[in-house]
Prior knowledge:
Layout: E1 5-11, E2 21-28, H1 35-51, E3 61-66, E4 70-75, H2 83-89, H3 94-113, E5 116-117, E6 126-128, E7 137-139, E8 146-147, H4 167-170, H5 177-183
Antiparallel strand pairs: 1-2, 2-4, 3-4, 5-8, 6-7
Amino acid sequence: RGAFGVVKECRRRDAPSESDSCAVKIIYKNKLETAEDVQDLRIEVDCMNRLGTGSLNCISLFDTYEDDSAVYLVMEIATGGELYDRIKKGAYTEAMCADVSKSILQMIAQCHAKHIVYRDIKPNNFLFFTKSLTSPLKGTDFGLSVHHPPGSKPLQDTTGTPFYMAPEVIRQKYSYECDLWSTG
């Protein structure tokens, strides 16, 4: 459950098996209180579309639907839980930390290659694809991401999660490098 809606596990009616499950993020329109909220949703969808489907380190957006009450984002499902929850359990080896770091940096590289500044790198925004200890890790929640083409002026919005926020974000003059700082 987020500020604007919920995420539910779904399956197409004609899907032959459980493996065809997907996640549907339901954003309730009555929770989008300002024009800025609506614009942020559009930017989130745009960023996910730019990344495309089949990304190794980002949750894929398959489709979007809209009715009078909500917007529905149909996405790849990841059932292994948040990185944050696994970190809380402890007992990460150096090799496991290296794998996690590599996955996060690959996700950042994929975003930056498409001129997307993610702006909210934190353990809560990374999901394991399965419950396996060797599961792939995927970035999700592109709600604060923004398309930032080469040659653009530095970004100035102070956005992100304070504990993970780069100093240049607080100074309101930043670009792609803020994602690397937040990685830690």
